[in-house]
């Protein structure tokens, strides 16, 4: 539930509602569920979140016998004026505390509409570009700072079914895209050519991930990511393998027989590139250390707790924490220091037949828990059905990664508080499954993509602000809508808040 001050054009989450008196403030919103408390001092993630996004202790100190309330922006400014911190300015934690109150809940604005389903929604690392990929062979790169104009329109090569994933290099010069094929393609995203037609106007080099060991079996790539230095690409395949491709050597540098089923998601754990996280339909997240694992593909550790397959994993970037979205309708937070060396299969709960692609999740299964669950926390409330729905940590720069956000089959976007587990926002502007969404690294802007079948196959272009009702004249003809939600009053230049 949100409290919205419409006359000022902003919205706070219920948890962050500022109060000038001692009136009661509820601590949760919506139907989110957290299976264990994280706000005690023995949980490192709670302390890290407090350090990254909490106000100075002189501003948040509570007198004995008094209830603790969120520190208001007014109090923060007054404290800075009085130099209570002793610095004479806001710290990065102070700035994040203020900025994290402003959630991207207003709008939405339509950025673009296409005739086929959208599968990927990604901001570049600096937020200047946005990438969207569609089932109909198209990838579009938008110039965010230039009014969301299409900077590059890419027509993919050798497409099988859909574009499953894309990744933009850290320097934003190259983009790789994958399909249900063992060959991914790399495109020069920084060239001046606006229309990039594969091998017609531009070369789309193919990077072959297959090997003689595959025995001629064709597989697809579900997930891929550039390394921080841009020299490697990690990928997960439908054959249960993880691959690392060396772009300078132009060959595979690593192939791991990693899982017993599809590898739906992979990512590097931190900037070093030594650790890799993976999530699979075999219900496990695994941690791979490239410095020490053997040729047999033994993982550094296994994270047990999901009851169904994993659709996505996202790293906090510190080599310690990650989150995973599961078909058991839950996001789990993991600490790799608690991983085990053996996989603990648990099939005793499976007294039903279920397929997430066309069936609802059984009601009684929602109450089941893995007896060997190693996760730090579990977040529930959203729906993971029909497609590989993605979840992420919120940006470090503006929020200190204090939130988790995810798409959902129920046409909503959910934002959870990492520590309390509370549902701080539920964005309800869509009419079909939200597969992917992306939060701008610096601004309170969130972009979501969704897909639904078109009545007449037309591709429409329209933009609007503030009210979704202005789309009534579309009459269900749109297949994909790219939405933007933003907080009006702070998007002019949030950097001015920083010292």
Automatic annotation (TrEMBL):
The record's WD repeats, renumbered to this chain, cover 214-255, 256-289, 303-344
Q: Does the keyword Repeat apply?
A: yes
For this UniProt record, the keywords arranged alphabetically read as follows: Repeat, WD repeat
Which Pfam families does the entry link to? Answer: WD40
Residue ranges of coiled coil: none
Keyword check for DNA damage? no
Q: In its UniProt record, which GO terms are filed under biological process?
A: proteasome-mediated ubiquitin-dependent protein catabolic process
Tell me where on the tree of life, at the top rank, the source sits: Eukaryota
> Which SUPFAM superfamilies does UniProt cross-reference here?
WD40 repeat-like
A cellular component term from Gene Ontology for this protein is: Cul4-RING E3 ubiquitin ligase complex
Family (UniProt) = Belongs to the WD repeat LEC14B family.
What is the protein named?
LEC14B homolog
